[in-house]
Amino acid sequence: MESDFQRPASLRPNRRADRANQNSHTREVEGFPFSPEKLQVYPVKMLCRMGIIRLVFVAGIIWMMLILCALLFHVWSCQSSFAFFSAICNRQSKVFLMLDTMGLVPKAQHRCSIPLAYNPDRVSIPKGMTPEDVVRDLSFVMEDDPLNNTSQSTPLFGGRQTWKQREESFKLEPSMKVHCGFIRNGGAEMDPIDIEYVKKCRFVVASGIFDGYDLPHQPSNISPRSKKLFCFLMVVDEESLSFIKSNTTVSEDDDGGIWVGIWRLILLKNSPYDEPRRNGKVPKILTHRLFPQTQYSIWIDGKMELIVDPLLILERYLWREKNTFAIAQHKHHRSIYEEADANKRRKRYARPLIDLHMKIYKYEGMEPWNSMKGNPSDVPEGAIIIREHTHINNLFCCLWFNEVNLFTPRDQLSFGYVVYRLGGSFKFFMFPNCEYNSIFVLHPHTREHSSKIEWVKNLSEFEGKGSSLKESRGGLGLWTPYPGNLKTVVLPPVARTSKAG
């Protein structure tokens, strides 16, 4: 027999093909997936696998959409006017900060450039005072009417103004005499050294610290011309003076004046009120009474650091457009009733007394702000006030202070009301809030203000054992019988426009 090696190549068995056929037959026998028996099972498994993948993919998309919706809801809640939703917003949270970094948080225009003159040395100062058109002579009540001083012998700083006297004070005459604080022996006395010093101050940057809440912050960007032109006067009470001496460098000049950097400290002895916030309104609103020789003044709150040259401020807000009084618009509110609601929520004063204050204003015809009023807002940011000390401006400040003296110390609630009562005779420039925020750097208080009256929820807490909550020298209009029926007064509804509001 011939061996395989001797056979022609064409006659040799195709062993590779045989093995392939054998393996194929074996796989078919063993049930390979592509075997006829399995051809119908394979599509079902594939569909199951594809279905699971699709399900996971869809679930992932839905989950991402839910997260996105939650993030968008978080952003919306911060802008919501609904108290519940806006209350859950936390601008310091990691979520909010992440969204802010991604640019998903709506940006409010917090600061903007101020159209200032370029060079303080080239600012032209007007000669003389602005002509008086409405009030040509203004004097002040210095003592209480004896008929009104029978119930208590101690004089009150704001006097015991009657409802009739208050009503008469809003009727403009060429010559007027009104209550304007500083009733003789009513408190807030200046040292004779300081009285002599401020007599030379025609231009004043004024500020105040009461009850030791702040330390003086040195202004920056002050030109040499402004340093010579302006007196920088920081009004303090006795507690704040002790606090400042203990916590910062204080110097004394040859005349006995006390200084912290550029600020001359002006001590007011015998604080006129129980409430520190009400004491702070004395230099803020009655600047013309403390510094009677002053022609122009710029008030800034004690927690602020001025970063704009005061001469440029006067040029921008007064002289350029021939204004005599300028104040910033409130960031959130235009209606005093909105501001009152915010004060109650933030416990800035006793809630029932704020309501009583607003009911009196509503009874006397004060309507919520609307665009027909002609003013940008009824609510200012009172931390910066720029004014020329004209008679009409001084009268306005007296009437404004009388409201603070009679009712609550929240002066933003009274500003728009006095504007309304003067019927357009008081002209003022209310500038954008973003410019207001560009004038200063805001520093935190050294401690938070707190008083028992802020937590009062109803008038009954002022009775009996809780009667000590009632201020003895301020807010007396809230405890004097009002000559009108306030029971029928319904306060306007208020809708929140922002979380901060």
From TrEMBL:
Keywords: Membrane, Transmembrane, Transmembrane helix
Membrane-crossing residue ranges in chain numbering: 55-76
Biased composition, class Basic and acidic residues, residue ranges: 15-29
Entry-linked InterPro entries: TOD1_MUCI70, TOD1_MUCI70_glycTrfase_dom
The TOD1/MUCI70 glycosyltransferase-like domain, residue ranges: 138-445
Region of interest called Disordered, as start-end residue ranges on this chain: 1-29
Coiled coil: none
Keyword Membrane listed: yes
Protein's UniProt name: TOD1/MUCI70 glycosyltransferase-like domain-containing protein
